[in-house]
Design brief:
- Chain A: It holds the Pfam family zf-HYPF.
- The complex is a heterodimer of chains A (844) and B (292).
- Chain A is of the alpha/beta class and 844 residues long.
- Chain A has five domains: 87 residues, Alpha-Beta Plaits (2-Layer Sandwich); 85 residues, DHBP synthase (Alpha-Beta Complex), CATH 3.90.870.30; 170 residues, DHBP synthase (Alpha-Beta Complex), CATH 3.90.870; 166 residues, Nucleotidyltransferase, domain 5, CATH 3.30.420; 204 residues, ATPase, nucleotide binding domain (Nucleotidyltransferase, domain 5, 2-Layer Sandwich), CATH 3.30.420.40.
- Chain A has 23 helices and 31 strands.
- In chain A, strands 6, 7, 8, 9, 10, 11, 12, 13, 14, 15 and 16 form an eleven-stranded mixed β-sheet that branches.
- In chain A, helix 12 links the parallel strand 21 and strand 22.
- In chain A, helix 15 crosses helix 16, helix 20 packs antiparallel against helix 21 and helix 21 packs across helix 22.
- About 8% of the residues of chain A have low confidence.
- Chain B is an alpha+beta fold.
- Chain B folds into two domains: 136 residues, PurM-like, N-terminal domain (60s Ribosomal Protein L30, Chain: A, 2-Layer Sandwich), CATH 3.30.1330.10; 142 residues, PurM-like C-terminal domain (Phosphoribosyl-aminoimidazole Synthetase, Chain A, domain 2, Alpha-Beta Complex).
- Chain B has a four-stranded mixed β-sheet. In chain B, strands 8-9-7-10 form a four-stranded antiparallel β-sheet.
- Classes of the chains: A alpha/beta (844), B alpha+beta (292).
- At the A-B interface, helix 14 and helix 16 of A face helix 5, helix 7 and helix 8 of B.
- The structure holds fe (iii) ion, magnesium ion and zinc ion (ZN) (2 copies).
Chain lengths: 844, 292
């Protein structure tokens, strides 16, 4: 017991909100109360944790002081209130049963990677946990993916199906045990089990681990059921297996994510900075994009990239997949192109049999599918490429405190939605592509589920201005109809992608979740819809992500988004705030021949650029740049001339496409953003040549150790060789940026025999200069000095680096995304915050 | 072209061009309205035709103006009988073009047994029209073998289609913009009553519903059917016929054949048990194969 001095008894009632359930908070309080010799009780309720402690005042003060300081690593305290109570007749400190409330305010933790203690138990000899794939404790294990409702108790998870054995039950009830109230706790005697199936669904005889390792070595491909869904798995070092997987998935070039046995293994293949190491080992265990060591990994894992997306085993099952021979596995999400990740066993046997030879399944239901998260460390900061497993549904904290609940619908690709209640913005897991019915149905379910868990009934809804985004009619069907539970527009289900022009909001009937008492502050608010322009949403997202108020300049470099003038935007220097914006500067639009087809064929965009800026000369240049496609060039010319399916677009992504095609780097794209990624990678590697040589000194044979890679050195902009420092000229008149100078420059340099990688660098510098020029112009009109960067193109680390340097050097304060992705995965946050402010300004 | 004002010139136009081809006795009577013998339920439809270019592979505005209206009558379960035509001509139009279009109208009307019985002509200033606009109004009599209706569509029914989609849309687009593809794509523009009337004779009430997927294509029409009937329609993408040359052209142009216009296609909905029989008995539907 801790020493405290002083006298006088008191009783305090304490209420704690935040991430305080499912993270070992009650046993922690139990132990702390014991430490200070206090009596009373603690319980979980719908708002968080509630406790009463009684004892000497000095001990109480010591307890309260230690409480936030010594809390469990994963717990987050958002609020703590204390009230004096008349002393009770307590004889001990006890943990009482959870109290159900109509309206939970507690936060559900995200899924947590296996903790070191559990890992040890799985690998150690023993009986209950030895090689048991579902070992977990209060500090680790599945949460969001198994939870059906709140409070977070076993009966409201998919673990309810498994009755605890006497030992597990005893640990679960023992306040001093690591598994005290660990809701998904299980052991080999009582918990879920793994089965290895063939394609017909017939179980293989023998122990699954042995069979698995033999088949893995034989180059087989597996569909493995994990935490948030299925992965397609094969040995990453077996090029044949990888190639077979690529062929089946029709993904010739897209980088495949891998899982490495441990950190030492990661270092065998990649360079790892201290922050990257910390991120890999953190409780979220995301895929981290790392620089590969030259020659260390097979080329076909990430063709044309010097990086690799790597994660560590985050569940005991994953640990057991590795063998002495195979320390690197391909772990790509188990889905067909454009469809949600598969989560159920039958679904896997049906939908993944074109890809997988065997199926490693288990009998714990995945309640919420959840893809792996993807991050990259740039300039000493962790940037999200995809925020999903390990982070969702933890909220992003806002500076505002909303009076009514808000929904941001998200975009058409890389979709997430965002629910805001009070100060918390809950972004959904990655829901991805909304092109197909399956994606939309997944969206509907995920939205209903999170709404139910958090008891959020949105009244203010922000959606993209694009008249054909598929989620808009779906959300309207859910929230504006008389029966909002199941009656979404029948007709919309029938045909793939039927949009229809959306009305802008009008006063609608009351919607929201039925039952559960409703939400007082929401009750008077009719459901209102607000269209938010795509790049305004990006701006608002970046502002909210950085807790900014007032007005800023937004440099939004994106693929394409629907503009207020009906054309496609995407290279925008905006000024404004949450409520409204002004388009200060933008790239001149160029027609995209075939619309979406041009996005898949960068050479078409390049041809359109040439034809638009250089006319007849451009035509012959295009014919020279793309030999064998002369006839197609002529057709493109006719499409432009007759305006046949050639919508004007000003996307920065398309400018990168055009440059990549003109340089012969990528003429057709086999995955989203391929051309821009390959162009960016070529330039980045060209600039970081110095960095590479130091890595090469390590060599692939370097003894794998767990020490921090001290040879790590991030490349700096200043390191570039001369000749690359120049940039191409461009025009800026009346707020319109013209890229014809870039085009001519690239073609001239190419003809002069300048190395492609150097042209690529020069191109990046030019784009950064265009951004600077646009920002300066916006500054001239507004006097604003704060600049937010948003849009998918900012995931290009070199461009980000160059622009940060240029803008800072010119006196601007620059903000990049921190908690949500710069791409459309962060769009919903901006939509929600913008819609809320539009609503607010209507109220006044 | 100065035929716009002045009775004499109009008269010459009528005599010289229209009456040369359009010879129904009801029309030749040159009365203000046609008196039409017939009994039973009358079907009436009207449509205006604006197409650029006026002549395209597989058809022209004249053929389109007849087939479009005839098809609307046919898919609503009636036998096309009488047609009226209103022309809006642009000053300066080459008379030879007009003549070709009218001749084509006549030939199409003849081929499907509809009589063109009334007409009108106006001339607008140069630059105020695309050469020729045609409005046609069609009258038909309900086919006693037909009992069609949205309400007859039931779960499990099959959707049949009489051939490849998107041909008209691509043919017109290609001609307008001067696209050249390895193989010329012909518009499917054709009257459907010659297919539908015998079909209804054989199968009668087994045919539950029909629509012609014109503007907006198969997808848009399917959506309209779904909304009106309150039923989900499932179109299996791989079962929908698209000619290879249409597929190639739409891929290049970045267009979706599901959303391109057809002018000689019929969506037919029938009970699953009757689907095979209809497909087998009809040469045309055999080509189109059934979409489950
Ligand atoms: Fe975007
Ligand atoms: Mg019509
Ligand atoms: Zn653990
Ligand atoms: Zn057990």
């Amino acid at each position: 017991m801790r020493e405290t001095s002083g006298s006088g008894q008191a009783c305090w009632h304490i209420q704690i909100t935040g991430m305080v359930q499912g993270v070992g908070f009650r046993p922690y309080l139990y132990r702390l109360a014991q430490d200070y010799g206090l009596l009373g009780w603690v319980l979980n309720d719908g708002e968080g944790v509630e406790l009463e402690v009684q004892g000497p005042r000095a001990a109480l003060a010591g307890f309260l002081e230690a409480l936030p300081r010594e809390k469990p690593p994963l717990a987050q305290i958002h609020g703590l209130t204390k009230q004096e109570r008349p002393p009770g007749t307590f004889t001990r400190f006890e943990i009482r049963a959870s109290v159900l409330h109509s309206r939970p305010q507690v936060l559900i933790p995200p899924d947590l990677a296996i903790c070191p203690q559990c890992r040890e138990e799985v690998l150690a000899a023993g009986e209950r946990y030895h090689h048991y794939p579902f070992t977990n404790c209060t500090y680790c294990g599945p949460r969001f993916t198994v939870v059906k409702g709140l409070p977070y108790d076993r009966v409201r998870t998919s673990m309810a199906a498994f009755e605890m054995c006497p030992e597990c039950a005893a640990d679960y009830r023992n306040p001093l045990h690591r598994r005290f109230h660990a809701q998904p706790t299980a052991c080999s005697r009582c918990g879920p089990q793994v089965t290895l199936l063939d394609r017909e669904g017939v179980p293989l005889s023998g122990h699954w681990e042995e069979r698995f390792s033999v088949l893995l070595r034989a180059g087989k491909i597996f569909a493995v059921k994990g935490i948030g869904g299925f992965h397609l798995v094969c040995s990453a070092l077996n090029q044949e297996a990888v190639q077979r997987l690529r062929q089946a998935k029709k993904r010739p070039f897209r980088p495949l994510a891998v899982m490495a046995k441990d950190v030492a293994t990661v270092k065998k293949y990649c360079r790892v900075s201290p922050l990257e190491r910390e991120t890999l080992l953190g409780p979220a265990a995301p895929i981290v994009i790392l620089e590969t060591k030259p020659g260390a990994v097979p080329e076909n894992l990430a063709p044309r990239q010097k990086t690799l997306g790597v994660m560590l085993p985050y569940s005991p099952l994953h640990i057991l997949l590795f063998t002495a021979e195979t320390d690197l596995l391909v772990m790509t999400s188990g889905n067909a192109r454009g469809l949600p990740i598969v989560k159920d066993n039958e679904e896997a046997l049906r939908d993944l049999s074109p890809f997988a030879d065997y199926f490693l399944v288990h009998n714990r239901e995945i309640v919420n599918r959840c893809d792996d998260s993807v991050v990259r460390v740039i300039q000493g900061g962790v940037h999200f490429y995809r925020r999903s497993r390990g982070y969702v549904p933890a909220p992003v904290a806002l500076t505002l405190d909303t009076e009514a609940d808000v929904l941001g619908c998200g975009g058409e690709m890389k979709n997430t939605f965002c629910l805001i209640q009070g100060r918390n913005a809950f972004l959904s897991q990655h829901l991805g592509d909304m092109t197909y019915l399956e994606g939309l149905e997944n969206y509907r379910r995920a939205l209903r589920h999170l709404q139910g868990l958090l008891q959020i009934a949105p009244r203010i809804i922000g959606y993209d201005l694009h008249p054909q985004y598929s989620v808009t009619p779906l959300v309207r069907g859910l929230f504006e109809g008389p029966d909002e539970t199941e009656g979404e527009a029948e007709g919309n289900k029938n045909v793939k992608r039927e949009g229809g022009i959306q009305r802008s909001g009008g006063i609608k009937k009351e919607g929201g979740i039925k039952g559960s008492g409703g939400i007082k502050r929401n009750e008077q608010v009719p459901v209102r819809f607000f269209a938010v322009q795509h790049h305004h949403a990006h701006l608002a997202s970046a502002m909210a992500d950085n807790a900014l108020e007032g007005e800023v300049i937004g440099a939004i470099l994106d693929g394409t988004g629907y503009g207020t003038d009906g054309t496609l935007w995407g290279f925008e220097i905006l000024s404004g705030g949450y409520r409204s914006f002004t388009r200060q500067v933008h790239l001149a639009p160029v027609p995209l021949p075939g619309g979406e087809r041009a996005v898949l064929n960068p050479w078409l965009t390049a041809t359109a650029y040439l034809l638009t800026y250089l006319g007849e000369e451009g035509k012959s240049l295009a014919e020279r740049c793309f030999p064998g496609r002369e006839k197609d060039v002529a057709q493109v010319a006719r499409m432009l001339e007759h305006e046949v399916n050639a919508p004007g677009a000003s996307g920065a992504g398309r400018l990168f496409d055009a440059a990549a095609a003109l340089l012969g780097i990528c003429l057709t794209s086999t995955y989203d953003g391929q051309a821009a990624m390959e162009l960016g990678e070529l330039a980045r590697v060209s600039l970081s040549a110095g960095g590479f040589s130091s890595a090469a000194a390590l060599g692939p044979g370097e003894p794998a150790s767990d020490r921090v890679d001290d040879t790590w050195q991030e490349y700096r902009v200043g390191q570039c060789v001369s000749g690359e420092s120049a940039s191409y000229p461009f025009g800026l008149r009346d707020g319109i940026l013209e890229a014809d100078g870039l085009l001519r420059g690239i073609l001239r340099d190419r003809q002069a025999g300048f190395a492609v990688r150097k042209i690529a660098v020069k191109f990046h510098r030019s784009v950064a200069q265009m951004v600077l020029a646009g920002v300066k112009e916006a500054f001239r009109h507004t006097g604003l000095r704060r600049v937010v960067l948003s849009g998918g193109v900012w995931q290009n680390p070199l461009l980000l680096d160059l622009a940060l340097e240029l803008l800072s050097a010119n006196g601007f304060t620059v903000y990049t995304h921190r908690s949500v992705p710069a791409n459309d995965g962060g769009l919903s946050l901006g939509q929600a915050v913008a819609a809320y402010h539009m609503w607010l300004s209507e109220q006044s | 072209l100065a035929h716009g004002d002045g009775g004499i010139l109009t008269h010459e136009l009528i005599k010289g061009v229209f009456q040369k081809y359009l010879t129904a006795p009801e029309l030749l009577a040159l009365t203000d309205a046609a008196l039409l013998p017939g009994a039973g339920t009358i079907a009436l439809t009207t449509d205006s035709f604006v197409v650029n270019p006026l002549f395209f592979p597989g058809g022209d505005i004249g053929k389109l103006a007849v087939a479009g209206t005839v098809n609307d009558l046919a898919v609503s379960g009636s036998k096309p009988k009488y047609l009226t035509a209103g022309f809006i001509l642009e000053e300066g139009l080459d008379l030879a073009l007009l003549e070709r279009a009218v001749a084509s109208m006549a030939a199409t009307a003849e081929s499907c047994g509809i009589s063109l019985v009334a007409g009108d002509t106006k001339v607008v200033e140069r630059g105020k029209g695309d050469g020729i606009y045609i409005n046609t109004t069609g009258i038909g009599f309900k086919d006693e073998n037909a009992s069609l209706g949205y309400e007859r569509i039931e779960p499990g029914d099959k959707i049949l289609l009489n051939g490849g989609i998107g041909e008209h849309g691509v043919a017109v687009l290609a001609e307008r913009a001067g696209f050249t593809f390895d193989q010329t794509i012909l518009s499917d523009c054709a009257p459907l009553n010659t297919l539908i009337t015998p079909l209804l004779e054989t199968f009668g009430p087994a045919v539950k519903f029909m629509r012609d997927p014109t503007r907006g294509g198969l997808a848009t029409t399917a959506k309209e059917i779904a909304l009106a009937s309150g039923r989900d329609l499932w179109l299996e993408e791989t079962a929908i016929p698209v000619r290879a040359e249409v597929r190639g052209a739409t891929e290049f142009l970045g267009l979706d054949p599901l959303y391109l216009a057809n002018e000689g296609k019929c969506i037919l909905i029938t009970a699953a048990s009757m689907a095979d029989e209809i497909v087998v008995s009809s040469a045309v539907f055999r080509q189109g194969k059934g979409a489950p």
